[in-house]
Amino acid sequence: MNNIDDIIKRLEAQHPTIEDEDTFIDAFIDSLPELPAANAMHEDDGRALRFITLFRYVTSTAAVWLIGLFIYQMLTMSNATQTGGNAYASRADAATASAPTLSCLRNSYKDRQNKTITYTELKRRIHENY
Q1: What predicted TM-score, i.e. pTM, was given to this entire model?
Q2: What domain count does the chain have?
Q3: CA dist 32 to 26, 80, 125, Å?
Q4: Which residues contact 91 (CB under 8 A, 6 or more apart)?
Q5: Which domain holds residue 55?
Q6: Diameter over CA atoms, the chain
């Protein structure tokens, strides 16, 4: 341990000076290894990025179509139950009907909110679902 302390004391006693700081800094920077550019992209990375972008577009389109399908199905079921018929039997009639509108959605939502259900109706629905 004593040897290390002697070395540290000798280094503290010396005051090194750099005669030409610019050339020293340039030589030091030139001695550093080259790093790849941050925005450099390999061919594989570009291919993966294109695949991910395409996948995002396809899944987003599929999600929009599914939401539209669910809304259409909800409206056709709502119309069939309002007329008192079987929801699946009147699907052909509903397909020929005009496209659902926002007011139709609002009305079916309000009808569901205002409808009160009796205890026997609840028991019947539970029995049908199980």
Answers
A1: 0.32
A2: 1
A3: 10, 76, 76
A4: 76, 80
A5: 46-130
A6: 102
